[in-house]
Amino acid sequence: MKLSTAGPFRLGLALILLSGGISILWGIALARNASGSVGFQAIYYGTRCLIQHHNPYRQSELEAVYKAEGGDRPSVSALARQTVTLYVNLPTTFIFIAPLAMLPWGSAHALWLILLAGAFLLAAFLMWSTGANRAPAVSLFLVCILLANSEVIFGAGNTAGFVVSLCVVAVWCFLQERFVLLGILCMAASVVIKPHDSGLVWLYFLLAGGVYRKRALQSLAVAVILGLSAFLWVSHVAPDWMQDWRLNLSASSAHGGINGPGPAAVTSHTPDMVIDLQAAISIFRDDPRFYDPATYIVCGALLLAWSVRTLRSRPSKAGAWLALAAVVPLTMLVTYHRPYDAKLLLLTVPACAMLWAEGGTIGRLALLVNTAGIVLTGDVPLALLVILSRKLDLGTAGIFRQILTVALIRPASLVLLTMGIFYLWVYVRRQFPDTGRSSEEVEDRAGEVGRARGELAPKVQAYRGVSTTH
User: Fold this and answer.
1) DSSP letters along 9-62, please?
2) Is the distance from CB of 330 to CB of 347 less than 8 angstroms?
3) CA 169, CA 183: separation in Å to the nearest integer?
4) Half-sphere exposure of 277 (CA within 13 A, CB side)
5) What is the pLDDT of residues 380-408, one digit of tens each?
6) What's the pLDDT tens digit per position in 409-465?
């Protein structure tokens, strides 16, 4: 079924805008808090620090700029202050934020929210319209749930919302073979800002071969230019920035740090928790020498199977959507991520719609797994689970308490692992057309052939009649 009538299209668009509007308005309300919008504050003041010829990766210099420009108010919490002044973003972020950093805080923040909302809604619309070609109701259901649970993206103003949107737009451009130049620019930008979000998505196009590999290499070329430009700019202003950046990364991800995955981390028992696989395994043993290797073994084995399958497959749309649905959850698990990064699950909607349209147990499982993945990485459900776990006063003594703790306060990690395994299983066992066309394209082509035969049949019959009379 396609969105060929105005009624379903308008209803779907209205529901998408309504769902997105809930998160946008709620997020803006959160951002008005004294400690709100810390994600955008970090990149805004970091970029202003660089523009003023100071080292943004040196906490003392960034904190001086932060205080001088009125960002550090008495009402700002210590956690928010550390989030802003302990700068860990890649230098390429400065290139994109520099035009906004030239503006006063209020104007820059408002413009950033407009760009963020526009890009995110566009990405959601593209995934809904793609999935709606096979299962309109399922696609709309999944997209609306995700949109309505994205308050932190707008409340914190983190670049993840923008990176996710750019990555989704790029994938749509590549697979639909429309606005390809825009897709190349979007993919390059997303990779250089947050490579741990879109890097494995880019890797799919590289491994898939054919025109997809060409798009990946073109995106890489643009990314290299952007990365080199940023590196030269930052190195000119702060020659020792790389050493300071490494120190910031170590401090933020250390045991109990703001980005640490373990239960002792300051954000461990908040809705803004870390959702990688390390976060779940650390409940059993809070030691990076244990949870890091365990994570890499599990994710490494799954990614190896995914890579081999991709290299052995001919490029097709159906295969691409299934491959992306498998690798996106694994992207969230293998290294540091938070719930706002998981909005990349938008890329799993077309695959779920495709499997649902085929019917059977696989289709029902796809909808169940996708719904669980989107809900349990959503902002509102995670907040409710945090409140529930505080009331239950869970501990980590004993294996049964540990399992219950993981299920209640680390459900995102578990459901993402389930999603990754499920879609990888479907992707590995599925056979795709050797023509390079997706199943939908094959069906459309078959329909065209059928119509052509129908039009030709009367002419053939008339010709046979004429031949018989002669």
Assistant:
1) HHHHHHHHHHHHHHHHHHHHHHHTSTTTTHHHHHHHHHHHHHHTT--TTSHHHH
2) no
3) 7
4) 23
5) 999 888 888 776 655 556 777 778 878 88
6) 889 999 999 999 999 999 999 876 644 444 444 444 433 433 444 455 454 454 445
